[in-house]
Amino acid sequence: xxxxxxxxxxxxxxxxxxxxxxxxxxxxxxxxxxxxxxxxxxxxxxxxxxxxxxxxxxxxxxxxxxxxxxxxxxxxxxxxxxxxxxxxxxxxxxxxxxxxxxxxxxxxxxxxxxxxxxxxxxxxxxxxxxxxxxxxxxxxxx
Length: 142
What we know:
The protein is mostly beta strands. The protein has one domain: Thrombin, subunit H. 11% of the residues lie in helices and 51% in strands. Strand 2 (11-15) and strand 3 (21-22) form a beta hairpin.
């Protein structure tokens, strides 16, 4: 997956899971005015809408993050005023070795086309599960 952006933060093309291609123009400057203390962070996000009977899930890319809000581009349009669970591959490692995921529970406050704003209700960092290769090598006799 790749996300291309120019220096202004405009998204030109994103390869989404399942080889879907999104060609969207970022509204990031407008979002930054609404949330001036947000930080641009561009990482993959997985989402799920727990209250819908379909158990709808998908992937996308974050645009900006603050302590109270997150904005991201979803692979599919999402309904506003719905609870949402997000899982973000955090770009830093714990102790320089262990991968982290930022898990967020929130509510969609705005949704226009593929652009989604979420009010963060709670969050926690979790360690990523070890890959089978790591488990095999650590369990091998010495």
